[in-house]
Amino acid sequence: MIRWALVRGNPSIVFIRDTEAETSEKIRWFSRHPGEEQGSWVNHVAHLLSDLWGIVEALFAGVEEGTLEKYDKSETTWGLIVELVGFTREQHLVADGAALLLVGSPYHYVGILKQAIDGFFSKLARRDIYAARRFHLPGLSATICSQLVVKVHKAAKWIIMGLKTIYRKVGKGWHIRIRPKQVLGELPAGRATPDDIWDDVFEHRPWLYRVVAEINPHLCPEDLIPVIRAKIDRDMGIHRA
Questions:
Q1: Residue 140: is its pLDDT beyond 90?
Q2: Which domain holds residue 51?
Q3: 97 Cβ contact partners less than 8 Å away, ≥ 6 residues apart
Q4: Cβ-count burial of 42 within 10 angstroms (0-12 exposed, 13-18 middle, 19+ buried)?
Q5: Has residue 201 been placed in a domain?
Q6: What are the two backbone dihedrals, phi and then psi, of residue 96, each rounded to the nearest 5 degrees?
Q7: Residue 189 CB-density burial (10 A; 0-12 exposed, 13-18 middle, 19+ buried)
Q8: DSSP label at residue 53
């Protein structure tokens, strides 16, 4: 079931977590950003069309156009539907067009492999490694779910933000040290994971996003941290005792 807020707004992002698939668990593990106390709560993301029912998503079979019905009736998936505050109807239609142009494109298996490689070495180094994902072929239509969502929103002039590491010189003379510092910057499509997009919604810029629906609330992860649960309830107008 999908529990909608009283006001649905103009949502365009659908977060999904498969509670049973082993592949889902692996994606959540390697897309967890170093330094995060908790793992990722979602493993998939889709673009919600402006009719609030149709979706465009990158699946293993390729980019497909479908409907929310598959998740509405699912017995294993939990998710959230999110509105971009200030995202106009015109922008949404531009994003819809960009998403529909990708329908039929192949799934970017190499892209998911590059994410897994960077995720593995990030765990070893205990910092975000952006190496394998940095190399890509220009003009390639193949995509994964998070790349699709970043691309179509960028086409509509909505930039999703993510953490990146910059290196600064500290000290003078022989005492100069190079120290890494994490800052917010534009999230490149090739770098994006579902968790990166989730982090922009719930951590980096939560005031720019509003949760307008929860898919299968009874499957909500038990370890979902209170600040995220509070935002979901507040945005949807849910009052708990």
A1: no
A2: 2-158+189-236
A3: 155
A4: buried
A5: yes
A6: -60, -45
A7: buried
A8: S
Residue whose entry in the numeric block shows the structure tokens 């790349």: 147
Torsion, CA 89, CA 95, CA 96, CA 102, rounded to 10 = 180
Q: Does 130 map to a domain?
A: yes
Does residue 228 lie within any of the structural domains? yes
Q: Distance between CA 155 and CA 197 in Å, rounded?
A: 16
The pairing of strands 2-4 and 209-215 is antiparallel
Q: Cα separation of 116 and 118, whole Å? A: 6
Q: Distance between CA atoms of 190 and 66, rounded to whole angstroms?
A: 24
Q: For residues 183 and 202, what is the distance between their CA atoms, to the nearest angstrom?
A: 16
In angstroms, the Cα distances linking 233 to 4, 13, 67, 221, 226 are 11, 18, 25, 15, 10
Spatial neighbors of 64 by CB under 8 A, at least 6 apart, are: 56, 57, 103
Counted domains in the chain: 1
Q: Which residue has the higher pLDDT, 144 or 163?
A: 144
Contacts of 174 (CB under 8 A, 6+ apart): none
Q: What is the pLDDT, as a whole number, of residue 190?
A: 80
pLDDT attached to residue 192: 86
Give tens-digit pLDDT for 184-227: 888 888 888 898 899 899 989 999 999 999 999 999 988 888 88
Indicate which CATH number applies to the domain containing 16.
3.90.1720.10
In a domain, 179, yes or no: no
180: three-class secondary structure by DSSP: strand
HSE-up (13 A, CA, CB side) for residue 182: 10
